[in-house]
């Protein structure tokens, strides 16, 4: 089986993991080629093959994903479920070896976590809503409940929409300032005082993780919306008026 290319994180060196883009799969058309989203309009056999390729690349005996709903809900995984049958949640943690924790994104931030010493891993989906309501911190808390220590947890934030691509409205910015105080202004940039703000999603998530007491947080810096050759992007697809979009997958496994 052909294994697709992946982006790895230094923070998670030595652990089976990867942030997979859109290359190395079998899907066609809008979904070319490594679309891993069972909720897309792509042919199911192609999506299953693509997911199998990702699972094989990280050495998972079974690759799991969730029904993601932009929440702050976390699932503790003790046994696998069938493809497409995952619970409604936006993060998973486990101590079980061989189970691949998979997160689907198409501009939102995928986060992979590990405390090697405790043998606990996690994976989270952080769009703006989940980031604001605490999905990152909830994942850390669930890992601690399994025996992890905050100061030992390493986290890697994978490819997501970059600040230059993420134009938002003033009401969006106001929501963050209200929730986090004036300090949140540093995650918004304007080309001119009168222009619309651009949001730094990865930077915001990284700051929340650092505030939660993590020992190491790494940001990939890759912009999904700005690189059509490597990544799927909901925003790019929407601006182009296309009917659907693929989903990339990030995964981590305890060997």
Automatic annotation (TrEMBL):
It catalyses: S-methyl-5'-thioadenosine + phosphate = 5-(methylsulfanyl)-alpha-D-ribose 1-phosphate + adenine; adenosine + H2O + H(+) = inosine + NH4(+); inosine + phosphate = alpha-D-ribose 1-phosphate + hypoxanthine; adenosine + phosphate = alpha-D-ribose 1-phosphate + adenine. One of its GO terms (molecular function) is copper ion binding. It comes from the Bacteria. The keyword Hydrolase applies. SUPFAM superfamilies: CNF1/YfiH-like putative cysteine hydrolases. Belongs to the purine nucleoside phosphorylase YfiH/LACC1 family. PANTHER family: PURINE NUCLEOSIDE PHOSPHORYLASE LACC1, UNCHARACTERIZED PROTEIN YFIH. This is Purine nucleoside phosphorylase. It comes from Zavarzinia compransoris. The gene is pgeF.
């Amino acid at each position: 089986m052909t294994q697709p290319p992946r982006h790895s994180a230094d923070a998670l060196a030595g652990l089976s993991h990867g942030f997979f883009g859109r290359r190395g799969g079998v899907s066609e058309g809008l979904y070319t080629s490594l679309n891993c989203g069972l909720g897309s309009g792509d042919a199911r056999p192609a999506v299953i093959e693509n997911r199998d390729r990702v699972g094989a690349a990280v050495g998972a005996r079974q690759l799991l994903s969730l029904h993601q709903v932009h929440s702050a809900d976390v699932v503790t995984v003790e046994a696998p479920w069938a493809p497409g049958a995952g619970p409604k949640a936006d993060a998973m943690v486990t101590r079980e070896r061989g189970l691949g924790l998979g997160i689907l994104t198409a501009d939102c931030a995928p986060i992979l976590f590990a405390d090697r010493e405790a043998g606990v891993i996690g994976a989270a989906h952080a769009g703006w809503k989940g980031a604001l309501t605490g999905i990152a911190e909830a994942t850390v808390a669930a890992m601690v409940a399994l025996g992890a220590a905050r100061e030992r947890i390493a986290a890697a934030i994978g490819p997501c929409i970059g600040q230059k691509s993420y134009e938002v409205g003033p009401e969006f910015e106001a929501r963050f300032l209200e929730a986090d105080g004036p300090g949140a202004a540093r995650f918004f940039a304007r080309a001119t005082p009168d222009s619309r703000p651009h949001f730094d999603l990865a930077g915001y998530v990284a700051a929340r993780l650092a505030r939660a007491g993590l020992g190491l947080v790494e940001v990939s810096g890759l912009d999904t919306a700005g690189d059509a050759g490597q990544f799927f992007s909901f925003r790019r697809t929407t601006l182009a008026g296309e009917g659907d979009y693929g989903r990339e997958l990030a995964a981590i496994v305890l060997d």
